[in-house]
Design a protein that fits this description.
The structure holds two protein chains of two kinds. Chain A is an alpha/beta fold. Chain A has helices spanning about 5-20, 60-80, 100-110, 155-165, 175-180, 190-200, and strands at about 1-5, 25-30, 45-55, 80-90, 115-120, 135-140, 145, 150-155. In chain A, helix 1 packs parallel to helix 4 (about 155-165). By secondary structure, chain B is mostly helical. The chains are: A alpha/beta, B mainly alpha. Chain B: One of its GO terms (cellular component) is EMC complex.
């Protein structure tokens, strides 16, 4: 069971809007519950409240992924958050399937959080005027993907906020980890997006 | 229309000047007429100037800044350029139509693309290979791959050395998700066009998507040979070797060479920390001398990184320091 808040949903959507022609991926953070166990717990509830966009273009190179995960981990430890999700969008419009890179990265994330889930972006659903969400949610066990989208809740406010921010061209202001590495004054925590959302809700 | 009126006004001004010279330099009437004409032609010039300045904006987006901001270009088109008569821009407008066409395809605005393509086809008819290629691209965007492929094949029958059309056929394969075929065709292309950096880069990306790190490394090496002064080539090669997993020494060497070419490359600094850490861990049982060098360099790279963050984004420094510690031996 899981749900996602407006901030995480919107940041993910803005990342897709910024690089429509490329593969993109990123991390989703959820609140750290005190009962974090070392085994996969199918009854755990994941409440996703933030999103860190990672890379665009080539997703299969490992050095910068290690750097990114180490920094996100460090960020999480001070905020009582944990890496609980990973989103991945393929370059090809008609390919909504997780590939080898997705598998490798999910396995790496599951080493630290066995309850982590995959948000696999379906490019054909990205039109939010027609659909309420643009991804499917999967769990991974023994290299097999299981679709658990039915137990994932998205509220309507998220959809509207995401569309509104894209209309206001905010996707051009989104910073992913690649942008940060190109120029480190770009803040991958995207505090300005949070401010935009707060301004938008009034 | 604007250009013609402006021209007539200028011509009229010149005639009035001549008349003044010939008849009576102090004639009030001629002065008045001249004043009116100048005023008129100035007004017309201002409108043309506005159009030119928007065109400059546009060109800046496309050429000078070299950004792929397709949605901004489409916005500029919808808000400004499509409302105006572009005839005063002369032959430059065909380049604008071409660029707006490509950007509209990127943004799935097929109607805008169709409009631009119609203008181009009207002007250049069917004899222009460039416009025919654009037509094929339009077919690609509406998923009519068969027509696009036929058009490209015809163009290649007429001229088999056309590199642009060959590359478009390869990207057609990529669109259909036939990656193996795309790789094979791109290899044949590169046997002829060995200095085509864009093609080597694309082949490298294709191999990486297939997780064939060895062949991707070969492509990255070709890029290094073609242009050894580009720090991104060094850094990409190093990252591929690192991802491959069995030659951290080579990866480390090329992270250092990337840094030498561009001391501001933060990926190279991070790469040095990662590779040296891995090498020190591997050699922990062997000679201490090598390890000492690795450890010193890890320390040096970390200090460089921290210094850069302190100057650019001190807010993020605690996170980065904690992260670097977690990567330590």
């Amino acid at each position: 069971m899981s749900d996602i808040n407006t901030l995480a949903f919107t940041k993910m959507f803005l990342h897709l809007a910024k690089y429509p022609e490329l593969a993109v991926n990123g991390i989703l953070l959820s609140e750290k519950t005190s009962s974090a166990s070392d085994e996969a717990d199918s009854s755990s509830y994941l409440h996703f409240i933030d999103c860190i966009p990672l890379f665009h273009g080539i997703l299969s190179l490992s050095p910068m992924l290690e750097i990114a995960l180490s920094q996100i981990d460090a960020y999480c430890s001070s905020k009582k958050l944990t890496i609980a999700g990973y989103y991945h969008a393929n370059e090809n419009y008609s390919d909504p399937n997780p590939n080898f890179t997705t598998l490798k990265i999910m396995e790496k994330i599951k080493e630290n959080n066995p309850n982590a889930v995959l948000f696999m972006i379906d490019n054909s659903l990205v039109d939010l005027t027609e659909n309420d969400r643009f991804y499917n949610v999967f769990t991974l066990s023994d290299r097999t993907w299981k679709n658990v989208t039915d137990s994932h809740i998205v509220n309507d406010e998220s959809r509207l906020s995401a569309m509104q921010l894209v209309n206001r061209k905010q996707h051009r202001q989104l910073i992913d980890f690649d942008n940060h590495l190109d120029s480190i004054s770009n803040d991958w925590r995207n505090p300005h997006i949070r401010n935009e959302l707060n301004a938008a809700s009034f | 229309m604007v250009a013609v009126t402006s021209f007539i006004a200028m011509l009229a001004t010149t005639l009035v000047d001549l008349a003044k010279l010939y008849f009576d330099p102090w004639s009030t009437w001629l002065w008045v007429i001249r004043g009116v004409l100048l005023f008129f032609s100035d007004k017309i010039k201002t409108r043309t100037w506005i159009l030119y300045s928007k065109k400059a904006d546009f060109q800046q987006h496309v050429t000078i800044e070299n950004r792929r901001a397709h949605d901004e270009i489409v916005d500029l088109w919808t808000d400004v350029l499509s409302e105006r008569n572009l005839s005063s821009l002369g032959d430059e407008k065909w380049l604008i139509f071409e660029q707006v066409f490509k950007s509209a395809l990127h943004c799935s605005k097929q109607s805008i693309a169709r409009h631009c393509l119609d203008q181009l086809e009207k002007q250049f008819k069917s004899t222009s290979r460039r416009v025919t290629t654009l037509n094929a691209m339009y077919h690609e965007s509406i998923d009519d791959f068969k027509s696009a492929d036929d058009i490209y094949s015809n163009l290649l029958d007429e001229n088999e050395t056309d590199a642009i059309v060959q590359k478009r056929q390869i990207s057609l394969l990529k669109e259909k998700n036939q990656i193996r075929e795309a790789i094979s065709q791109l290899n044949s292309y590169l046997e002829l066009y060995q200095a085509d950096q864009e093609a080597w880069s694309e082949l490298c990306d294709l191999y990486l998507s297939e997780h064939d790190y060895a062949k991707a490394a070969f492509c990255a090496e070709e890029l290094l040979l073609i242009n050894p002064h580009n720090h991104l080539h060094h850094e990409r090669y190093a990252s591929i070797r690192y991802s491959q997993g069995d030659d951290y020494e080579k990866a480390r060497t090329y992270y250092f060479s990337a840094l030498k070419v561009n001391p501001a490359n933060i990926r190279a600094l991070y790469g040095i920390v990662l590779t040296s850490t891995n090498l020190a861990m591997k050699n922990s049982s062997r000679s201490n001398e090598n390890n000492q060098v690795y450890i010193e360099q890890i320390q040096w790279a970390r200090e460089q990184i921290i210094q850069k963050y302190r100057e650019a984004i001190p807010d993020l420094l605690p996170v980065v320091e904690l992260a670097l510690q977690s990567l330590a031996l």
